[in-house]
Amino acid sequence: MKLRTLSRWIIGVPLLLIMVVFALSNTKPVSLVFFPLGQLPFDVPLSFAILAAMGVGFFLGGLRVRIAELRHRRAARRAEHALRLTEAKQEELKARSARFGGTEVASHG
């Protein structure tokens, strides 16, 4: 088993158990109020409200990371494209130099 898979199990299973114990310990219904909408017409268990809020936060954090990742990937693609153009130009200059006998022109400065 890979170390990454093993570490996911070592962290994931206890975290899941903590969440289950939390959910079973906090079953009291609470009414939720959203500022612009007012109070919801139904009550939800406290554990559901907290875990749902954590889930939304996790999702939004992951979305933010994904957007940043896409920006970095785009920059990497542009850099790879520029590198390919530079390598092609270098090969073209080598070929041109070989046609003219491969003599180097020294610059006087």
Q: Based on helices, strands and strand pairing, what is the structural class?
A: alpha+beta
Shape: elongated
Q: What is the percent of helical residues?
A: over 70%
- β-sheet strand percentage: 5-15%
Distance between the termini: 63 Å
pLDDT averaged residue by residue: 87
The number of helical runs is 2
What radius of gyration results from the CA coordinates? 30 Å
Major sheet characteristics: 2 strands, antiparallel
Low-confidence stretches: none
Strand order of the largest sheet: 1-2
Count all strands and give the number: 2
Listing every helix as H and every strand as E from the N terminus to the C terminus, the arrangement reads HEEH
Q: Oligomeric state of the chains?
A: single chain
